[in-house]
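Incident log entry.

Two folding requests arrived from the same account within the same minute. Monitoring flagged them as a possible duplicate submission, but the sequences differ. Recording both here for audit purposes.

Request one:
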Amino acid sequence: MGSYRKHWLALIAVLIVTFSMLGYYGREVYRQAPPIPDRVATAGGEVLYTQESILDGQTAWQSVGGMQLGSIWGHGAYQAPDWTADWLHRELTAWLEVAAEREQGKPFAQLDAAAQAVLRDRLKTEYRSNTFDAATGTATVSDLRAEAIARTARYYDELFSDAPALQKSREHFAMKENTLPSAERRAQMAGFFFWTAWAAATERPADVGGSGATYTNNWPHEPLIGNQPTGENLVWSIMSVVVMMAGVGFLVWGWSFLRKQEEDDPTPPVHDPLSRVPLTPSQRALGKYLFLVVALFTTQVFLGGFTAHYTVEGQQFYGVDVSQWFPYALVRTWHIQSALFWIATGFLAAGLFLAPLINGGKDPKYQKLGVDILFWALVVVCVGSFIGNYFAIAQVLPPEWNFWLGHQGYEYVDLGRLWQIGKFAGIVFWLVLMARGIFPALLAPSGQDKNLLALLTCSVVCIGLFYGSGLFYGERTHLSVMEYWRWWVVHLWVEGFFEVFATTALAFIFSTLGLVSYRMATAASLASASLFMLGGVPGTFHHLYFAGTTTPVMAVGASFSALEVVPLVVLGHEAWEHWRLQHRTPWMAHLKWPLMCFVAVAFWNMLGAGVFGFMINPPISLYYLQGLNTTPVHAHAALFGVYGFLALGFTLMVLRYVRPQLVFSESLMKTGFWWLNAGLALMMFTSLLPIGLFQFHASVSEGLWYARSEAFLQQPFLQTLRWVRTFGDVVFIVGALCVSWQVVRGLFGTPAAAAPAEALLVKGM
């Protein structure tokens, strides 16, 4: 540890405390998850649903795309309704109609105000009362509610079939005709939707963490039964703001008073040190990784435009009905999965480029063979998962094969379990390839400072292993438990360890280039890692406020996710540091555009992850905003703006060194870089954010069911806002094509100009 002892001890302490909290309250997620009754039955003994039929319904929902077609508990796609909120509201209104017809002989709307008030009061009492008997495993419903359930189930049976009466609704929801052909499976899926709504309406018993709130902490907002923010929600929302302000304040004080005087920048070398190290066979083999990055990037961008167009035409693409072959749920799945694949490939390529450099400029034995095997394994997993997605949503796969070969139904981990295992195996294999280059240097006796290398090693190990947390749930795992582990992948693995790897890898590269001092790079990387992990690890719980968890999960998630904003305060300084590196020495001009990507990362990290992230993070915000278009504002700005630009920056940097003759085309890169940024801003500020804010008002005033309903979303002015997004998408696509063409031309074309004399003339994939 040496002179960095305090930094290491702080990081270790942060990891011990935060992972202890994540584990302890994770156990509470298991213990306090809403029960799935063995039977849902009437007082007369008629069984409506069983635990098995509800879980069968969960698998049926997964097979049609799951979270890629509407959402459950607010998690998923935004065009179709949130099925939990929609089912709940439809069942409640059906109950009022049935009660009015049976008891008054007329529709509910024709009753006088006093009679309506009486029925609403009875409705609230019946639905919020917990009739689940743990001893018998039975949840009892009244005959009145049973009829309301039956009416609601009939609606869903027609919606997911090809019934002509609901064809227009399917078009508005971007659903293909006959989404789920089997009537039996449609009935089972209705049971699953019922259970998610039952948990959202039923108060948690006092002896298992109840405090007058439902299993989902009164989410979604539903005035008919008094679902409104809890007192705890408001308290921890205010506390999250206080914690954020305190964190920012202490960071500024620490930055000002505790930070040691910065060293003068080292004198940069006359020539680029990396260009004077002969390329190894494994480094020369990385060209195909870079091609895969831009091939998937281009595919993902066009799929994004295709998916966005479905929000205005539903089942058509400029008049051509393509939904039967490439429905919304499928192209949205491919859009998200291709993003994860190309971003991950960019990171993997950066790591594989560094491994031989760390190993003294030489490959470990059979390193090139390993790099080649890993590449083709990535291709197989990518292609196989895409084909599996297609056959699953087309309802071609047998139901028992869907989860394993087709579609898991969970956003960001949509790929079938077999392909997920293959991806995990590939990442572990990458870890092995990295370890073969890093460990000899790390363990070699020498007087050199190896602290930065040790931190890089830790981040590589965590990236290699933590993706495996996505294997801790199965096809029929309880939804609350699944959400816990899914966010280990989506939040902790991506937003935590990839962030540390990126920070450390850049620090290692810049210090190796002689542009920043090794000591400052090491200290900054260790301090950044502590800050990222302090908020990032327990901050995982901010995704679980309304996923069947109790108040302590909300308290931890709100408080620590607020701390995720704290390190973003200094990103302006980080952006400036990256910007000025290109002017330190003439040969840095060849790295201008990778550096510009890293500057963009700092900007979008501040805006997308910081501003737009905190906009939806406090419990009171997320209570009304979860499942609205405000979420993809944060997702696009954070996923592409941060990790996308990081992967592109890594790709361009690796390209610069594996093709030493290359000189980036100024016109291509200027267009590509600025149009990507402008397109991203346009799609957010001219479409997604305005739509989300209008939905926000509807969610507060009427309820989530209305904010996601076709009656609201098909209003002409919202349709116009969705059409407006086309302009931003086109700008973004042009930028993506320019950057991709630069990479392809760099790999296969003639260099634009001669490189410096010291550059190595090396070709080959």
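Request two (distinct sequence, not a duplicate):
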Amino acid sequence: MRLSSTLGTLGAIGAVAALALTGCAAGDTDSSAPAASGAALTIAKPDGTISTESHNPFLGDSSASKYGYAKVVFEPLALVNPTGDLGTTPWLAESVEWNDDYTALTVVPRAGVKWSDGTDFTGDDIVFTFDMYLNGTLTDTSGLNYEGATVDGDAITLTFADSKYVAQSRVLHTPIVPKHIWENIADPNTDPLTDEGVAVGTGPYVLDNWSTESVTLTANPDYWGGDLAVPALNYVSYGDNAALTTALVSGEADWAQAFIPQIEDSYLSADEDNHFLASPTAGAGTLFLNLQTEPFDDPALRKALAYTIDRQAYVDIAREGASTPIWSVTGLSGLLESEILPEYAGEEYSVDVDTARGILEDAGYSWDDERLIDPDGDAVSFSISVPAGWSDWNTEQALIAEELDAALGIEVNVDQPDWGGWDAARQEGTFQAIIHWLEDTGNAYGLYTSTMDPKWIVDDRAQFNFGRFDDPAVTEALNTYANASSDEDRQAALEVMQTAFVENVPAIPLGSHPLLGEYNTRNYVGWPEEGNLYASADPTQPGIVQILTELQPAG
């Protein structure tokens, strides 16, 4: 999250961490106004039958999490935009303010908010929610390392054992729950919240009906954010993407997050009111290379590949336009342009076969009957692995194989194992090349920790840094960036990390890893769109509450 763009439309602030993020968000409208009586919105998932009822927002396998309706019932302190300006909008907090080293967060609870059972929301609910991590009643699966809270008038300061600069959204997106109900829950880690009157939140919608076929929520008439145009939400899970696409085209479903092949022909052309938004994030679809084995133990080969692989083809063909290419030698996408060092500004890779061949020749490579031969006299070949059925990245595998064969004479084997085999290989380091996503922290740290940080290797199994890059100076810089108490220290660390990435090419980002959203404007307008990315259009993200306060009747 870039401090220079924090708050977005609520007012610009400087890059000084101590400045408060303040704003009224959606709370200036008349909260006593009744909900409109327009059409319900049906939100679709392609995950098959969700058979077990659970409304617990802290459980990843609860129906509330799988469908995504937890996010319209239980609200966070603030919303961190993963796209657009990467800014922060205060939500249940009227303001949020980090200290210099991001080990303490001061929040002022929003006044005039009620839980859906009519009880007043107060700062006690915020402290109680976080204290569940402290007293062990709730497992700290997000790694917040929360240490306690202090209260000074209306202000509450939450403290953490380490810096949250690269994990601000994990703190700010914590769902706040009502103390008067949850203090009576024996085990918040397992309770499904299915008892009468227990699924209580501050959000814009309240649970109305749950079944294995669908879940219905109705507008909260006392919502602090004011009148809601959409009177009800229906959550439905279809068997697969094909069934979901059919539902979107027929109008049976209104809103979804899915990768739809041939989306122009299969969805957009069916109705002028159908829309698709791919919102770029700071993450990226990335080609990870095993730096510990041939042929990728040679940085010259890695750099030659970076000058050969066509990122625009990845966007246009593999992703069907649902991405943006990443050409910068720093590996950073356009959203993070402000973190590109001056010496690398404008320095980009391109599809430049002459340059790629020149790099290889200088490193002792040659060609025999158009096959690339390494300095030891062996033909260069490798395999690239992506699970079967990941259609976009399966297509990219084929593209890379064609590009490298034609341009450099490298034979690339396309490997499409099942998920289990692929997952084992990426963790154990028994692959040669894979396509994978990055840890998205909203800043440059996400790319560089994902590709160069040894912290991800535990018991010789990798969660990121699959190539097992290891340079003590870079490791120190990564730790400094994450924990620095000044912008100057963070900038100095960035210089070390970025220079190492440019010089070593430990991985090759292909294109932004976007958040996807399909929706129609038949009944409502005000959706995020190009030029107004106040949130992504993905209904599974926390920003859904902001979208629902922005929607207005069409016409």
